[in-house]
Amino acid sequence: MTIRHLLHTLLLALLISSATKAAAQTLRIGTDNWPPFRHIKEHQVTGIDNDLWQQLSKKLSIKIQYVHCPWKRCLDLMKTGDIDAMSGLAWQQERGEYIHYIKPAYFGCSTRFYVRRGEEKRLQNREQLNHLNIGMVRGSAYYTEFDQNNTLQKTQLTQESVLLPLLASGRIDSYIGTDCQADFELARSSWYQQLVKAPFNPESNTPLYIGLSKKSDWNKNSQSFSEAIQQVLANGFRDAMQQKYYQSSE
């Protein structure tokens, strides 16, 4: 092998090594549209979760890459390790088999049901759920009693935004959502005067976490992610997000 060929081979090896290292430092994050946490427009992601990821990427010196997918599809990709992480995750035991939930939670919501205005009496207690067609997002976790009840009539869809017109048009009787997202979306929709929270309150608080795929190489850095989240929260992240996405838009 000539010196020229040797130098060419060494250079190629260095380039491959650099490319591999760069790829290894890129965190692939599954994301769908879920304002104000995740808002996708023209392939750009904004919202509470993006603000969190941007801060974490600086603290951990990593690059992030969003992979757009419906919620259920994102979960499937977490199972296989084809994406590394997700945010906005509610705890569910089944998910815990393939997702490493990173503590502490970075935000919290309450689970509520929504009905058409004037029909509040249709959902005043949990027993009345048995008589309703309830809209929900496929693959979502709300609260254990609801999630594990296979006798309820559940209409499962890919996005929350579809639930509002379905309820307004009478195609479903109610839908379930987390108020920190559902209230935000309803207030900015054309149905905000037609739909209201049902009197029945399951009194279920839902902490939101980021999670790492257990098949991702990033999983070994879970402690670093946990420490970074604690630092972000200590710097007033939750109050800042309340001001930016809720109070400022009232």
TrEMBL record:
<feature type="domain" description="Solute-binding protein family 3/N-terminal">
    <location>
        <begin position="26"/>
        <end position="249"/>
    </location>
</feature>
<dbReference type="InterPro" id="IPR001638">
    <property type="entry name" value="Solute-binding_3/MltF_N"/>
</dbReference>
<protein>
    <recommendedName>
        <fullName>Solute-binding protein family 3/N-terminal domain-containing protein</fullName>
    </recommendedName>
</protein>
<dbReference type="Pfam" id="PF00497">
    <property type="entry name" value="SBP_bac_3"/>
</dbReference>
<comment type="similarity">
    <text>Belongs to the bacterial solute-binding protein 3 family.</text>
</comment>
<keyword id="KW-0732">Signal</keyword>
<feature type="signal peptide">
    <location>
        <begin position="1"/>
        <end position="24"/>
    </location>
</feature>
